[in-house]
Amino acid sequence: MSKLVKSYYKILQTIESLHIDCKVNKVGRKPRESDNEIVALSLTAECMSIDSESLLFQMIPENGISNILERSQFNKRRRKLFTHTELIKTKLKHSFVEFEDYFVVDSMPLEICKMARHKRIKICKERFETAPEKGF
């Protein structure tokens, strides 16, 4: 089982433990994949920094996830479930907040200026604490 599939099932289990009902209109035939499964796959891709749905579906091994939708159907349902996804994120955030006092937010370094101009830059140099490092 790949790392993506393991993460997917762990996120799906966490979402289902929240017991949140989806309020999206269900007209027509019964979908192959539940709303929580769509949200879990979307959150898994987001957690693993996979921006492209094409890459996501290439990374899923054959028979790794049962009843998986086609890419276009997945995108349509994912967009319809945006409010449901935000509700799940909010519930998860509130469940973390009651146990923790501090959180560490991981971020990527941001290039402030090119190395050729780093001696001439005046951004945030008023105080030593806010002075940028060389490069990033």
Question: How are the SSEs placed, and which strands pair?
Answer:
Elements: H1 3-17, H2 35-47, H3 53-59, H4 71-80, H5 82-97
Assembly form of the protein: single chain
Query: Given the structure, what is the number of helices?
Result: 5
Q: Outline the low-pLDDT stretches.
A: none
* Average of pLDDT: 79
Series of H and E elements: HHHHH
* Major beta sheet summary: none
Portion in beta strands: under 5%
Number of strand segments: 0
Distance between the termini: 37 Å
Q: Give the helix proportion (percent range).
A: 40-55%
Count of discrete domains:
2
Structural class by secondary-structure content: mainly alpha
* Rg on CA atoms, Å: 21 Å
Shape by Cα distribution? elongated
What does this structure look like?
This protein is mostly helical and 136 residues long. The protein folds into two domains: 3-97, no CATH class; 109-136, no CATH class. The protein contains five helices and no strands. The chain has helices at residues 3-17, 35-47, 53-59, 71-80, 82-97. Helix 1 (3-17) packs across helix 2. The radius of gyration is 21 Å and the shape is elongated. The two termini are 37 Å apart. The model has no long low-confidence stretch (mean pLDDT 79).
